[in-house]
Amino acid sequence: MPGLIDLYEAHKKDRDRFEILAFHDGTVKDFEDLDKKIASPRKKFWNDRELPFPILLDATGQTIKDWGVRAFPTTLLIDPEGKLVGEAGEAELEKKLPPLPMSVRVAKALDRRVSYSIIEDTRLDHICDLLSQLARVPIRLEEESLKKAGIPLESQVPFTMAGSVSLRSWLALVLEADGLTFERDDKGLVIRPRKPGEPPPAPSDIQRRTARTIEKALEGKISFDFKNKTLSEATRFLENKTGENFVLSPRDRKSGKLDPKTPITGTAKDVPLREALTKLLEPLGMSYTVRDEVIVLTVKPKTVRK
Questions:
Q1: Is 248 a residue whose pLDDT tops 90?
Q2: Considering the domain 2-95, what is its CATH architecture?
Q3: Three-state DSSP class for 82?
Q4: 249-293: per-residue pLDDT in tens?
Q5: Three-state SS annotation for 56-109
Q6: Which fold has domain 102-193?
Q7: Is the pTM of this model over 0.90?
Q8: Going by C-beta distance under 8 Å and a sequence separation of 6 or more, which residues neighbour residue 134?
Q9: What is the DSSP letter of 52?
Q10: Which of 75, 124, 251, 300 is most buried per CB count within 10 Å?
């Protein structure tokens, strides 16, 4: 649905060539009921946006039956004569519309939510290729500058996450371990080493809004009892319990300061997540920060005594 919203808004000038209609099944009785049902996904996945295209209720279920819909969501393409072509997502629909300027494509792609799972020791070039395919925008590595910086294209990225965040956040998290950043050009997005003293990109509206949501989640109560669990196991538990993404700092992992297999012990009983996290991490010399739409667990910098 987020992709269809993006496509609909990006192709305002082409509305004479297509229309999108959203059908909801008969599990809602009216639009007031529908608003309540979609409130959560709208906030979590649609960047708090309303659907810009018409929504119809299939109260009898006949439409879904006639079209052979067996799973949700299902996206169907209907030709100008009203004939059902078959299943087709936003990528297929976009191919049938006039191409957007690269600057518009890149701007939309950076804020587009990308749902994916990155496992341990994935190569830098493979991750960039995957994100490029998922976000439908060219992403390339600036090979010469990476070579000068001593960063091979097949460099292993110490990063694990399964979630849905904007492409901007995926790139920020994936690239930080090697001190890389991204910039736009007329061909798409290019990955290069960060220059000395170069600040990270300013947070986007979506990143700031998500950060506020996470801050509220940190006030929620939680209970756990970890006895010699690994950091990886603890973060997976916290993700399942809270619905938020927890990431072990790729930079700290790359430098050897942080090991996912480090044992961690701690208990919490119906206390705010913020308080529980602080007490859990302090014995390991760790803390956390909210950025790039996730909670990042980091190693505290050592204080230098004068």
A1: yes
A2: 3-Layer(aba) Sandwich (3.40)
A3: coil
A4: 999 999 999 999 999 999 999 999 999 999 999 999 999 999 999
A5: EECCCCHHHHHCCCCCCCCCEEECCCCCEEEECCHHHHHHCCCCCCHHHHHHHH
A6: Phage tail protein beta-alpha-beta fold (3.55.50)
A7: no
A8: 114, 115, 116, 167
A9: S
A10: 124
Q: How far is CA 34 from CA 135, 139, 241, in A?
A: 29, 38, 27
Cα gap 125→16, rounded to integer Å: 40
Indicate if the pLDDT at residue 303 is higher than 70. Answer: no
DSSP summary character for residue 61: S
Measured at the CA of 296, the angle between CA 176 and CA 221, to 5 degrees, comes to 170
Burial of 97 (0-12, 13-18, 19+ CB in 10 A): middle
List, for residues 83-92, the tens digit of each pLDDT value. Answer: 777 777 777 7
- 99: pLDDT strictly greater than 90: no
User: Which position has the token pair 């649905």?
Assistant: 1
Partners of residue 280 on adjacent β-strands:
none
Please tell us whether the domain made up of 205-299 is placed in CATH 3.10.129.10.
no
How many residues are present in the chain?
A: 306
Q: Which of 284, 289, 277 is nearest to 241 (CA)?
A: 277
